[in-house]
Amino acid sequence: MRDSYMLDDPAFLAWQQGKRLDRADRASWWRPWCDTVAGAVGRGVVMRRARIVSEPVTDYIRYEYDVTHPNVVAGELVRWLPRRRTTDLALPGVDFWLFDGEVALFNHFTGDGQWADPDMETTTDPRVVRLCDSAFEAVWERGIDHAQFTV
User: In total, how many domains does the chain have?
Assistant: First the structure.
């Protein structure tokens, strides 16, 4: 939901200085998250991520786009939706993860993109979970597959 996060992240700073993933060297970018995704997908779980972005995209979104390659290779489905195409959608005001249509986890950030305190909250309130589910499905339906989206 944000156009930038933690602009002081060492990985983002290195990317700004020209460091890029070597797509031919899987060992250099495969990380614990990819193991989690690959294991879940291997068990038949579908993992989807949708990103809403302003255009033109920020440098941080260019970075996110670059580092999404490992997620896709691991089996995560990723779509991107330009923010201007969301004007008629009811969306939660913060980033969230939805688990099995039963639990919503909200991520909270400060105005400058740092983790807030507290940084996360969860709910099993069926009304809130349904709102998140319907919002995600609407974004997913309109989203552009990672392979077709350009930054």
Answer: 1
